Amino acid sequence: MRVHVVSDVHGRADALAVAGQGADALICLGDLILFIDYDDHAQGIFADLFGRDKAAEFIGLRTQKRFDEARALSAALWATLDGDPREHIERNVRAQYEALFAAMPTPAYLTYGNVDLPRLWSDYLRPGHQVLDGESVEIGGLRFGFVGGGLRTPYRTPYEISDEEYAAKVEAVGEVDVLCCHIPPALPELLYDVVARRFERGSEATLEAIRRIQPRYALFGHVHNPLHARARVGRTECVNVGHFRGKGVPFVLEW
To answer: What is this structure's pTM?
Structure first.
């Protein structure tokens, strides 16, 4: 059995269209849309609406953790547009989802990332796409559990939830052979992004479940440029499957 795993697609419909070649199934760990691009300030919804220079200014403030100033800049820019800012965001998100789900191979097992809008996914799913969040499924004789979304941060991305709600989803998954999450378990070496020069949030609940259940693998994304892409917790191999937008290549899991 061969499964390809991707995470942090962020608009790469071109690479997504071929990500399942040679695999029995594709697993996608979320973050499909590209709202803002820290590497190329001209890309993403924010730059499409307000231009590269304003995107660069906004990114600079967030990188410096000047969140109040970043929110003030964002609010001032949204105020220049006609109508409700949420309508502008949703229109652009829908355009990306339409292209991404059309490119998504089948069969595919998906969960949400922290920048996704779960309520919109059902409008674009095709036959052969199965969304799981706090649920498990058998693939090729192994049990795969899925936990989507992220924990709350100062960045206030769309699908951030409380620690308690996240832990409940981890608990609901139960005993699995492969645990698939968008965010990593709370191991510092897996959370530090060497380019952004900051720690992302990881899940203590996921780490505790890994220690207790000892699945074969714990797969995740979220940290685009991790200090370490792998770590072992007992018998469990914890693996960052890679920044798909940047690399365009899936992680391969075979058994």
So the answer is: 0.93
